[in-house]
Prior knowledge:
Two copies of one chain form a homodimer. Chain A contains eight helices and eleven strands. Chain A has about 200 residues and is of the alpha/beta class.
Amino acid sequence: KISNSVIRRLPIYLRLMQLLKVQGITTISSQDMGVRLDMNPAQIRKDLAYFGEFGRKGVGYEVEYLERKLRQILNLDRQINVALIGAGHLGIALSNYARFQSERISIAGLFDADPNKIGLTVGSLVVQNFSELTNMVQTKNIQMGIIAVPAIAAQDVCDSLISAGVKIILNFAPINLRVPKEVVLRNTDFTTELQSLAFYIDE
Amino acid sequence: KISNSVIRRLPIYLRLMQLLKVQGITTISSQDMGVRLDMNPAQIRKDLAYFGEFGRKGVGYEVEYLERKLRQILNLDRQINVALIGAGHLGIALSNYARFQSERISIAGLFDADPNKIGLTVGSLVVQNFSELTNMVQTKNIQMGIIAVPAIAAQDVCDSLISAGVKIILNFAPINLRVPKEVVLRNTDFTTELQSLAFYIDE
Ligand SMILES: NC(=O)c1ccc[n+]([C@@H]2O[C@H](COP(=O)([O-])OP(=O)(O)OC[C@H]3O[C@@H](n4cnc5c(N)ncnc54)[C@H](O)[C@@H]3O)[C@@H](O)[C@H]2O)c1
Ligand SMILES: NC(=O)c1ccc[n+]([C@@H]2O[C@H](COP(=O)([O-])OP(=O)(O)OC[C@H]3O[C@@H](n4cnc5c(N)ncnc54)[C@H](O)[C@@H]3O)[C@@H](O)[C@H]2O)c1
C-alpha cells in the first residue's frame, strides 16, 4: 500500500510537468525537479518509482510522458464530478475558484439546507436543496464530496454523503469526522499553513 | 538550512502533541507517531533531530516537553498578528475561522478596496480601507499577510504588503507572485488536495 504522503505529492509533480511543457522544456532530471520544488531528489525518484520506471539514467524524465502517466495514476484522464455541501462564504469561494482552476475536476452540484440559499445562482450552478443529494449523486455520477458547513452539521452531512454513495470526502469543518474504513477522508486547515509560516518570523 | 517540507510538517507534530495531552498520554514513540499520522517514523525522527535531542531511546518523546519545544521553534509562544487582504467570500470565511482555531495567531486587520465593504463588521473586525495598511502594520505589529483578492489585483497587493514591512505572505490568488529574496511566500490551492484524492476513485 502506497502511503498518503506519496499520493499528496503527485499533483505537485503534475503541476510542474504542465509548467515545463508550457515553457518548452522536454526533459528534466530529479535533481532539477528537487531544486524547483525545494524537495529532496531521492524522495522524488522514490515516489515516482512506486508507479513504474519513468526516468532514464543520465537523461531524467520525459516531461510529456510523465505528465500523461501522472494524469492516469491520479484518474485525471477522465471527468470527475464533485458535490460541494454548504453554499456559505467558503463554499461560494471554493465553487467559483474550482470552475477556473482544474480542467478535469468540476463542482457538479452545490447544496445547502437554508431555504434562503436554495435557488441562488453561483457562477454556472444553482444551489440545490441538500435533500436532493442522493438523486444528484446518481444522475451526475458524483464521486467526491466537499464539506463546507459548520462543525455542528458536519457529521450529519458526512453520513448523508456516504449513504448517497460518495466514498471520498474533503472536509473543511473543524471537527474529527467518524467514517467507515472504506471511505477516504481528508481534512484541511489553512491555519496549519500559517503556523508553519510563523517559523520564519525574525529570520 | 532546513528545507520547507520539514517546517511544514512541524504543525502536524504540534497538533498531535496537543491531542495526546488532552487524552492524558504523556510519552509517545516515533513508531506510534508514524501510525497515527500515516507517516514514516524515520522521517519524524529526522525532522525533530534538526532542532535538538527530544526523544529518549526506548521511551520516545515526552508529549508536554515536545509540545513546548515545537511552540518555541514555530514562534507560537508569542502573539502573532496577521493582515488579511480581501473581505470577499474567501476572506470572510478565513477570518471567521481563524478566530476560533488558533490561539496565538490572530487576524489583526481585514482590508479591502471596495467602498461597499469598508466599514462592514466581520466577527470582531471592521473592514478597513487597504490604504490604511502601512499604518496598521506599524501600530498592530503585523508580521504576516494573507492575500485573498482576485489574481488581477494580487501582485499590487503583494507589493504594498512588502513595502509596508510584511515579509511573510500566504497567497490564495491563482497567480505566481514575484517577491524579493528576503520575503517568504507560500501559495495554497485546495484543488491540489482534490487532485490527490482523485487517486482513490474506484479503489
Ligand atoms: N479548513 C479551513 O481552513 C477553513 C477555512 C474557513 C472556514 N472553514 C470552515 O468551513 C465551514 C464553512 O465556513 P463558512 O465561512 O462558509 O460558513 P457559513 O456559515 O458562511 O456557511 C455555512 C453554510 O452551510 C450551510 N449549512 C449548515 N448546515 C447545513 C446542512 N446540514 N446541510 C447543508 N448545508 C448546511 C449553511 O446554510 C451555510 O450556507 C465552517 O465549518 C468553517 O469553520 C474552514
Ligand atoms: N487557493 C485556493 O484554494 C482558493 C480557493 C478559493 C478562492 N481562491 C482565490 O481567492 C481570491 C478571493 O476569492 P473570493 O471568492 O473571496 O473572491 P471575491 O471576489 O468574493 O473577493 C475578493 C475581494 O477582494 C477585494 N479586492 C479586489 N482588489 C483589491 C485590492 N486591490 N485591494 C484590496 N482588496 C481588493 C474585492 O473588493 C473583494 O472583496 C481569488 O483570487 C480566488 O481565485 C483561492
